[in-house]
Automatic annotation (TrEMBL):
<feature type="domain" description="Glucose-methanol-choline oxidoreductase C-terminal">
    <location>
        <begin position="371"/>
        <end position="498"/>
    </location>
</feature>
<dbReference type="InterPro" id="IPR051473">
    <property type="entry name" value="P2Ox-like"/>
</dbReference>
<keyword id="KW-0274">FAD</keyword>
<dbReference type="GO" id="GO:0016614">
    <property type="term" value="F:oxidoreductase activity, acting on CH-OH group of donors"/>
</dbReference>
<dbReference type="Pfam" id="PF05199">
    <property type="entry name" value="GMC_oxred_C"/>
</dbReference>
<dbReference type="InterPro" id="IPR007867">
    <property type="entry name" value="GMC_OxRtase_C"/>
</dbReference>
<protein>
    <submittedName>
        <fullName>Choline dehydrogenase</fullName>
    </submittedName>
</protein>
<keyword id="KW-0560">Oxidoreductase</keyword>
<dbReference type="InterPro" id="IPR036188">
    <property type="entry name" value="FAD/NAD-bd_sf"/>
</dbReference>
<comment type="similarity">
    <text>Belongs to the GMC oxidoreductase family.</text>
</comment>
<keyword id="KW-0285">Flavoprotein</keyword>
Length: 511
């Protein structure tokens, strides 16, 4: 069922059993899991079914620290969320990502990879992926020409990705709108959360829109699924009862903002061409491919973060501008056009340099960011048109981030040399071991994580292992905001699995 909140009578009261705030990957995944149940599900979406620049403007904010994308264009604010323009890269986190690592400050999840596995399998289906199998051997037998570089698998392994074309807005709109028990309210922007006098139970969420309408939503349980930045922003802005914001007794809401560092880091020159499709990818065609990753044993030995290296033909890569340069328009549609235009231009120029394509590559890093409490979301002094203070992002990297990127390519260079198949040339920004800075050309993956991190100790996290906000019995956070660490893979598969795990927990609470 679909209701446009702009058309409701002002000050309407909306009631249900569970209220999900946000209709992106996390929120829609949870809603689908409750479809055809005996419970009334309220699904709130701040935008409509199409892009609206006035609604998108609600995401605008300021950034400081390491150069970042304009916040307005870093997320999409309509039904389906940022799956409206994602690349579809999916891989599960590795077992080490959940572990406490003594060389990674503030690492460690209160749950393990085994806790995720059944929900990863379920998430694979929602994302329209293949089987929940990310082993190289399986895909080597499934697809042609996936020969791997002959490297020591005790040091370097092939991290497999599957590719989803799931645009949640297109894929699940009909099912949600036609559902009898899911009530989708569009143009219903959450602006405040009201709790009881003890601030131990949420009573209602206040929503507003540009039509000048204000409504109240009441439910037994509330799930914030607005994305990493907006989840933190709404909690911080809900400060009429708790001056520092809801769930923020220990000054943790908004801290530990994490991104994936995606940066061109080195060149790989093979001794001779190596025929394989394993390390290449074409959107809409490739079912599975791999990136080079460092084993858990070597990560532990060298005390580095988890990251991967992908290959782009050097003849193409040298004409591609960093995404941090092409994606600087606050309108996400124009930034997307700029990026695609550069890619098209690079492809045309690369056609005349076919001689290098088969043996010269740019190595691109995708690596987790070390959890850093100074990397954070705060509220600025300016308010949006609905009266909510805007989010400010301070993105701050550490020496461990830089050391890890450099060490990964030293390890890969050694292994490629030992195998006799090629040599690696580090990019200039990695050559000085005493330089811990990153260039402005360092890309983020648009992968926002960590601002309401998970820990069973309320002094170390905002939510517990079931994604419940500490001290508030019926308020939950869904999505990558809960990640204590960010792993190397893109977050969508894992955030979908975590959301389904939360959904399962809520179902048991309803019994």
């Amino acid at each position: 069922m679909h209701i446009d909140a702009r058309e409701l009578e002002n000050n309407s009261v909306i009631e249900g059993d569970i209220c999900i705030v946000g209709a992106g990957a996390a929120g829609i995944s949870i809603a689908l899991d409750w479809m055809d149940s005996a419970y009334k599900v309220i699904l709130l979406e701040g935008g409509g079914f199409e892009y609206d620049d006035k609604v998108q403007e609600l995401y605008a904010g300021k950034t400081t620290g390491q150069k970042y994308f304009p916040l307005k264009s870093a997320r999409l604010h309509y039904f389906g969320g940022t799956t409206g323009h994602w690349a579809g890269m999916c891989a599960p986190f590795d077992p080490i990502d959940f572990k406490k690592r003594d060389w990674v400050p503030n690492s460690g999840w209160p749950i393990s990879k085994k806790d995720f596995d059944p929900f990863y399998a379920k998430a694979n289906k929602i994302l329209k992926l293949g089987p929940y199998n990310y082993e190289y051997e399986y895909w080597y037998n499934e697809l042609p020409n996936l020969t791997a570089f002959p490297l020591d698998d005790k040091v370097v392994w092939n991290k497999i990705w599957q590719y989803s074309q799931a645009r949640y807005g297109d894929l699940y709109k009909k099912a949600i709108v036609e559902s009898k028990n899911i009530h989708l309210y569009t143009y219903a922007n959450a602006v405040d959360i009201k709790a009881d006098d003890n601030i131990s139970n949420v009573k209602e969420v206040i929503v507003k829109n540009y039509a000048g309408k204000t409504h109240k939503v009441k439910a037994k349980h509330f799930v914030m699924a607005c994305g990493t930045i907006q989840n933190a922003r709404i909690l911080l802005a809900s400060n009429s009862q708790a001056p520092q914001g809801l769930g923020n007794d220990n000054d943790l809401v908004g801290r530990y903002f994490q991104e994936h560092l995606e940066v061109a880091s080195a060149e790989l020159w093979l001794v001779k061409p190596f025929s394989t499709n394993l390390y290449s990818w074409e959107y809409g065609v490739t079912k599975a491919s791999a990136e080079l990753a460092i084993t858990e044993e070597i990560q532990t030995k060298e005390k580095i973060l988890n990251g991967t290296a992908s290959l782009t033909p050097l003849s193409l890569a040298k004409y591609q501008k960093p995404r941090m340069e092409t994606w600087q328009n606050s309108d996400p549609r124009k930034s997307l056009e700029n990026m695609f235009a550069n890619w098209g231009e690079a492809a045309e120029k690369a056609k005349v340099e076919k001689g290098n394509i088969e043996r010269a590559f740019q190595l691109n890093t995708r690596i987790e960011q070390a959890p850093n409490p100074s990397s954070r979301i705060t509220l600025g002094g300016e308010k949006d048109e609905l009266g909510v203070r805007r989010a400010n992002l301070h993105w701050e990297l550490t020496a461990l981030d830089k050391y890890s990127v450099r060490k990964i390519y030293q390890i890969l260079g050694q292994q490629l040399g030992i195998a006799g198949i090629g040599r690696i040339r580090l990019n200039e920004f990695l050559r000085d071991p005493n330089d811990n800075t990153f260039p402005d050309s360092t890309n983020g993956g648009w992968h926002h994580m960590g601002t309401t991190r998970m820990a069973n100790d309320p002094k170390k996290g905002v939510v517990d292992s079931n994604c419940q906000v500490h001290g508030i019995s019926n308020l939950f956070i869904a999505g990558a905001a809960c990640y204590p660490t960010s792993g190397a893979p893109n977050p969508t598969l894992t955030l979908t699995a975590l959301s389904l795990r939360l959904s399962d927990f809520l179902k048991n609470k309803m019994i």
